[in-house]
Specification:
heterodimer, A: 11 strands, B: 76 residues, SH3 type barrels
Chain lengths: 366, 76
């Protein structure tokens, strides 16, 4: 969308980097990019290399695959073993380790697991397979949850009665609140997720100002968007005046997408949810409302799930809370690699450990 | 997972739109953005238009970034 020459981008980046350096001075500043898509964009554009050493970027709990609890994976795996079930899922869920298996292994062993680009494809699969039960693995934040809600409404309208969702949708603001309340992770400012905000708008972040006085900027995903977002955070920190700001006005209106939020609220309601690495957070997840219980896999298809166990030594939880960098985990790059992930942060392309492994290899090996 | 791409709406039939994404056309749902019109740019995620792209804001952002390029040039 932004039609600029490489030279123009370079000059603007130099401006932001210079100003960020001036504003930071020698003060140590820790910023959290909440969204996994930001994490990858920061690595790809080499943004860390442009920043002064005093400005540190840490990743937050913003990769939906990474924060999905083991128990959810174990449930999905147990469903996939039922012969009358077809699982539909986004591709990045396939290699996420459950307690003793993963969906990729089950698929290789014969389970009918299909990768979809859009959950809408689940409805075609349901029509084509009337004797099967189609379960969509509904994972994702506020960007994706309204889409799953819309597909439930489509299924209702088309009277499709063999489509179900297994919901693990999560909400970003409650996770930020939990991080700040735990006081374990020091954050001087948040780079807030652009596309979650395109849906929910600015208001749900107001508590960051009112309760925690923490600088926050919603930012886009182009390298200059991210640099400008960091620059705006530094300006706030320098002035000592936290403000909720929007760098991504071309995509994020103040009120977000009102229609999408209405559809979400029509189909889903808030529920307590377990986040990998963080634990159970009140009202931080979504479950289907009772009016749509006919589409809820757990309420309609009995399943026996193995007892959940976590992987010894994996420090995904601390990585997800922004407490440690991946390189401090004893498994990172050794037993845990993208082709053989132990923890979820190494699985998704947007996982913090996967991004560090792929783009930071030269540095962490040294 | 929150990756989204911009596309231009070239045709609308009921709640389904044909969009042009960098020269490739595909069908998306307008259920979450029913007010979208032919010729507009929208942001697409998982087969749905999720937000309209504000072209005035695009212009302002571009203007700002290009001004910085000028600023950096004079600064040297």
């Amino acid at each position: 969308m932004l039609d600029m020459t490489n030279e123009q981008v370079k000059k603007a980046a130099e401006f932001f980097a210079g100003e960020i350096g001036n504003l930071a001075g020698s003060r140590k500043i820790r910023l959290m990019e909440v969204c996994g898509t930001h994490t990858v964009a920061i690595f790809k554009a080499g943004i860390r290399q442009l920043l002064p050493a005093s400005v540190e970027l840490v990743s937050g709990p913003g990769c939906p695959v990474c924060v999905t609890a083991n128990e959810y994976l174990d449930t999905a795996i147990a469903y996939s073993r039922q012969p009358e079930v077809i699982i539909t899922t986004f591709g990045d869920m396939l290699k996420v380790p459950g307690s003793s298996s993963n969906l990729a292994t089950e698929k290789a062993a014969g389970a009918d697991i299909r990768i979809v680009y859009s959950p809408m494809e689940s409805l075609d699969i349901a029509r084509d397979n009337p004797s099967k039960k189609i379960i969509f693995l509904a994972v994702g934040f506020e960007t994706t949850a309204p889409i799953a809600a819309a597909v439930v409404l489509m299924a209702e309208q088309a009277k499709i009665n063999n489509f179900y969702v297994l919901s693990a949708h999560k909400l970003v603001p409650p996770a930020l609140k939990a991080l700040l309340m735990a006081k374990e992770t020091h954050v001087d400012g948040f780079l807030l997720p652009g596309h979650v905000s395109a849906m929910i708008g600015m208001e749900p972040y107001q508590f960051l100002m009112d309760e925690f006085q923490t600088p926050a900027v919603v930012a886009g995903f182009e390298p200059l968007d991210i640099l400008q977002g960091i620059y705006m955070l530094l300006q706030q920190i320098h002035a000592g005046v936290p403000i909720l700001e929007n760098q991504y006005g071309r995509i994020v209106p103040q009120k977000g997408n009102v229609r999408a939020c209405e559809i979400l609220a029509q189909v889903y309601e808030r529920t307590d949810a377990t986040w990998r690495g963080i634990g159970s957070l009140p009202s931080s997840g979504l479950k289907l409302r009772k009016e749509y219980v006919a589409f809820d896999a757990k309420e309609n298809i009995p399943v026996v799930v193995e007892p959940t166990k976590e992987h010894a030594g994996c420090r995904c939880g601390e990585v997800l809370r922004g407490n440690i960098l991946p390189t401090l985990c004893p498994l990172f790059g050794k037993n845990c690699r993208p082709e053989h992930p132990v923890g979820s942060c190494m699985v998704s392309v947007e996982g913090t450990c996967a991004a560090w492994y792929k783009y930071g290899a030269g540095r962490w090996q040294g | 997972m929150c990756l989204a791409v911009p596309g231009k709406i070239v045709e609308i039939q009921d709640m389904l739109a044909t969009v042009d994404v960098s020269g490739v056309t595909r069908k998306i749902s307008l259920m979450l953005l029913p007010e979208a019109k032919v010729g507009e740019f929208v942001l697409i995620h998982a087969g749905f238009a999720i937000q309209a792209i504000d072209e005035e804001e695009v212009r302002k952002t571009l203007e700002l970034f290009k001004e910085l390029e000028e600023y950096a040039r004079h600064d040297q």
